[in-house]
Amino acid sequence: MELLLDLHPDAYPLEGFRRRQLLDWVYGQGAGTFDAMTNLPAATRQELEQTYLLNPFKLIETVRSADGSVKYLFTLQDGRQMEAVYMPYLDRKTICVSTMVGCPARCAFCATGAMGFGRNLTPGEIVGQVLAVAGGEDIAPREIRNLVFMGMGEAMLNYDNTMLAARILLHPGALGMSKRRVTLSTVGIARGIKRLAAEDDLGIKLAISLHAPDEETRKRIIPTGQVNSIEEIMSAAREYQDVTGRRITMEYTMLRGINDHLWQAELLAELLRGLVSHVNLIPMNPWPGSDFESSTEEQIQAFYDLLEARGMDVSVRRSRGRDAGAACGQLALKRPNAHSGGAA
Ligand code: SF4
């Protein structure tokens, strides 16, 4: 049965006024069933029910953290599992969504990478995370104003589905998000960065998970052959900025004794010279079985100070959900067969 959420709002199966009503039920009110759509004729509801699946998820675990963030673990129709994280910051409600079950990039410090690749999520399974989390928090889906494609998976390797999901998120008849509040994060897929640059009507923001300024360290922590060299990534980033004029966020997970040396801060400042960027230093979120630890507070501060002294725009992101053990992929990783389907 087709997932209704996989459709672009302009392709919804009703016309005019009825289509707007349907969209409002789905995205405005987060209706869980076609039956709840009481202003649609009964025959229409029945027809929709027989043709489309409305909710692709079953919620199986929620982990609430002392800082307010909430991790949701869902089972999909095929039994595979994936996560979304809700982060109710003081001034804005943010959701971090997954684009895949598992991830082929296999970053060595990441719990999702340790799962390997399960499958790509469909556009509706990506967008549906907003609806499911809103339902879990008892808020209207449109109250979630910020979204980051930073959960499980490498969005650029599920490019078409992620782009359609982004278009649904921004569509005024659907979730109506502001393009300035939607950020796509990539581990550095140069061809994807170039394609995104060409989607000029979309206008969402770009974050690149660089994590190291030198090839040797980067290859050690991001071993997948699908990832480009630093030179190729920087070339794509410059092209993106030339075309879009938008600032790029550079994500840098701080790994103790691996990528937190001051010579690497110097090299990073050198590498980013001339690019309008913001460097986000992220203390590693530890998970059982990981070979890596987060850098110490002192080392992070020293790294920060050096970048700032070189004129970089830099901040330290405090990972949310640390007390819940909520590193990306950790909930799914602890369940057997989570990415291969058939899991409980
Ligand atoms: S950090 Fe992101 S790209 Fe790397 S393995 Fe984890 S989910 Fe994939």
TrEMBL record:
Main localization (coarse): cytoplasm
Binding site for [4Fe-4S] cluster: C103, C107, C110
Active site: residue positions: E83 (proton acceptor), C328 (s-methylcysteine intermediate)
Subcellular location: Cytoplasm
Alphabetic keyword roster: 4Fe-4S, Cytoplasm, Disulfide bond, Iron, Iron-sulfur, Metal-binding, Methyltransferase, rRNA processing, S-adenosyl-L-methionine, Transferase, tRNA processing
Function: Specifically methylates position 2 of adenine 2503 in 23S rRNA and position 2 of adenine 37 in tRNAs.
Protein name as catalogued: Probable dual-specificity RNA methyltransferase RlmN
Organism of provenance: Deinococcus grandis
Gene name linked to the record: rlmN
